[in-house]
From TrEMBL:
Keyword Oxidoreductase listed: yes
A molecular function (GO) term: oxidoreductase activity, acting on the CH-OH group of donors, NAD or NADP as acceptor
SUPFAM superfamilies tied to this protein: NAD(P)-binding Rossmann-fold domains (SSF51735)
Record organism: Trichoderma gamsii
Protein name: Oxidoreductase
Domain of life: Eukaryota
Length: 288
């Protein structure tokens, strides 16, 4: 192996351990930013020193979720903006991302794609419309979001707003369902879409790690079952939750706040040599 040291190697070596997890002087795009998981990750990024461009489908973000985040950003002197966007529209994503990134003080250095849908249904009767919607949002949407963000990152370097050595880090939210067949509920199309996110992660990491300028690291996390507004109705089914609790080595269902540390790690310099990897955060459900 060669011993040539790059500027990135030098920066990493000279960074103190606490600062390895800092997101200062960088902007992160979070899709699905007003959801149960997305809002927690937005909070974590702000608290770690980063600025956030929040993306979601509603023209006006829900006040109950967004106002506390705005108050937090103000108290920390951080930038927090919101833009409505459809993650299944590549042209809309490119336009919104470019405009949003041009209006914030620090360059775009990261992406967290939380936008997604969870669907349950007997596969023999699963509708064409719902199949297409699930795949469009969870899988194709992940690609479209990454494409739009990567174009902004490259443009920043070309315009001299960011330096090549800084690079960027993208994080997809996949699922433990990309590895296993859910015992409690029939989720064939959802599970297939999340397995696709795992492969998309590896493929983009391979493409953008060396041939991209700057290098873009691409990783994913695979959550277990989470208590969020989106899963509220599903979790009313005791016969399902009992199975999920039993299957988890920790014997419980997770909260959205339990994913903050992993995502900050993957966005920050602490994970500078991590790419093409999926981090399972599932309470041990897939470890048996």
């Amino acid at each position: 192996m060669g011993s040539t040291e790059t500027a990135t190697d030098q920066t990493f070596r000279n960074t103190s351990t606490p600062n390895l997890f800092s997101l200062r002087e960088r902007t992160i795009i979070v899709t699905g930013a007003t959801g149960g998981l997305g809002s927690q990750l937005t909070r974590a990024i702000l608290e770690s020193g980063g600025d956030v461009i929040g993306i979601d489908r509603d023209e006006i973000p829900p006040a109950a979720t967004w106002e506390p985040l705005q108050a937090l950003a103000k108290s920390l002197s951080r930038s927090l903006t919101y833009h409505a966007c459809n993650v299944t529209s590549p042209s809309q994503l490119s336009s919104v991302f470019e405009k949003a990134a041009s209006e914030v003080p620090f360059p775009l250095r990261g992406l967290v794609n939380c936008a997604g849908v969870g669907t349950v249904g007997d596969s023999v009767d699963y509708s064409e419309d719902e199949t297409k919607w699930t795949l469009d949002v969870n899988l194709a949407g992940s690609l479209y979001v990454a494409q739009a963000a990567a174009k902004v990152v490259r443009k920043q370097v070309a315009e001299g707003r960011s330096v090549e050595e800084q690079g960027a880090s993208f994080v997809f939210v996949a699922s433990m369902s990309g590895y296993i067949s859910n015992k409690a509920t029939p989720t064939a199309i959802y599970s297939a879409s999340k397995a696709g996110v795992h492969q998309l992660t590896r493929s983009l990491a391979g493409e953008w790690g060396s041939s991209s300028s700057p290098a873009i690291r691409v990783n994913s996390i695979s959550p277990g079952v989470i208590h969020t507004p989106m899963t509220k109705e599903v979790l009313t089914h005791k016969e399902w939750t009992t199975v999920w609790e039993q299957e988890a080595m920790l014997k419980r269902i997770s909260g959205p706040e339990e994913y903050r540390g992993a995502v900050v790690f993957l966005l920050a310099d602490a994970s500078s040599y991590v790419t093409g990897t999926d981090l399972r955060i599932d309470g041990g459900s897939t470890g048996w």
